[in-house]
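Now for one protein, fold included:
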Amino acid sequence: MKVAFTFNQKKEADSEEPPDEQAEFDAPETINTIKEALESHGHEVVMIEADHNALSKLHASRPDIVFNIAEGLRGECRESQIPVLCEMLGLPYTGSGPLTQAITLDKARTKEILSFYRIPNPEFQIFKDPASPLREGLSFPIIVKPIAEGSSKGITNDCLVRNEAELRAKLRHLLLAYKQPVIAEEFLEGREFTAALIGNGSPEVLPIVEVCFDDVPDGMNKFDSYEMKWIYDDPSSGKHIENMVKCPAEISRELESRIKKVCLDAYHALGCRDFCRMDVRLDSKGEPNILEVNTLPGLIPDPRENSRFPKSCYAAGMTYGQIIGRILEEGIKRSGIQDG
């Protein structure tokens, strides 16, 4: 088949950019490895950067299907940009549709849908003004995040606040720096997990990943912050913590079953397709709560980097080529097109 591969590649950083400016984009190594994996299955691959020329390139190439990992360029619906173009051109593509991509990038809209379906998630409040009163029922500690960012952008160690003064200071900073509303959530003190899902109809939940914080340095809060993900879990940083990410997680079958159920419920409620990663944390009663829904999960191939979705797939016995092939296969089957 002719497969158009759409992506956003990290560029050389501008010295004036925030350090997390390109965190959502993919490194050339990841992009090249995905291309090679697609070619290993016998497909012709057309590389398309998801920039201002993407529409004309998709139209000119007329692929059989689009393998999409593009985050989009800007805006609150940026992850929907390539799916929208594909639908306009009548091209099948992998991954969730434009509506689901737009909703899941917006943490508040995601949580509203989860709450409607009684799927557990932390209590929250949206702030557009740092002076807005804290609503009754939301108590400290609280974690604050930009409402529409991925890859832990803006979610630094000091986003966990324990009093009013810390909250107001962090709200002011995030509102100014990211130019979007901020979500404040009840901080759950329990263990943190990630679940990778593949499929449609009856999707498969792959081995569950636990993010462990037992060995983090003093002063570091125990949640999957930007520092945890991109410094302490980065083997090239010089501060790498061994065994911070464990898969399969060492949990009881009963807890595993409850985590899988809440993830599957969220997958169906939000209309996810083909593949997804769910971030989960236990509350004070040990109940799994959905933290984040990642419809474009990271696919970094190097096992040492502990990219959560591949980590789970590797534990299930898959090679990297098989991961990429399986995602493509799900898109092909769902679209009803013929391979070859």
Notes: Residues 2-94 form a domain with the Rossmann fold fold (CATH 3.40.50.20). The CA atoms of residues 70 and 125 lie 29 Å apart. The first helix runs from residue 28 to 40. The two ends are 6 Å apart (CA to CA).
